Amino acid sequence: MILNETYQLSNKIEIPKIGLGTWFIDNDDAAQAVIEAVKLGYRHIDTAQAYGNESSISQGIINCGVNREDLFITTKLAAEVKSYEEAVSSINQSLEKLNLDYIDMMIIHSPQPWMEFDGEERFFEGNREAWRALEEAYEAGKLRAIGVSNFQKRGFG
């Protein structure tokens, strides 16, 4: 069954091939969506700070009946986070909202803030700073894997 299939990331962490994407799921409904998805066999839950549903995702994780270690939770730094200090704070906020000791994967959601996407400013330095914060959280065991989303080849400069 494809819900049981995984990919291996470069650091040897296994990520389920299929996950529940929670974009457009209101915070009021996200917990039940997680519970129902886990009942169906999903083990990867994908959220983001921008979705505004991390706290409800947490309740779904707690109440889904599957051990935390058997789930793969992905979240993303808000696209507007473009400094080291903001990234450190955002990582800690996601850990708190998700009520987790670690997040399986955290991603820089976008190379540019959404309101400036495709603009001239590439935010190279801000993305480097956010990446440094992700690396430090990875080294500290707060994150098991890190990555980027919506970047093009020139995304880091």
Describe the model.
The model has no long low-confidence stretch (mean pLDDT 93). 35% of the residues lie in helices and 15% in strands. The strands form two sheets. Strands 3-4-5-6-7 form a five-stranded parallel β-sheet, with helices on one face. It starts with 5 loop residues before the first strand and ends in a 9-residue tail after the last strand. The chain has a single domain, classed as NADP-dependent oxidoreductase domain (TIM Barrel, Alpha-Beta Barrel), CATH 3.20.20.100. It is globular and about 45 Å long. Strand 1 and strand 2 form a beta hairpin. It is an alpha/beta fold and 157 residues long. The chain contains four helices and seven strands, in the order βββαβαβαβαβ.
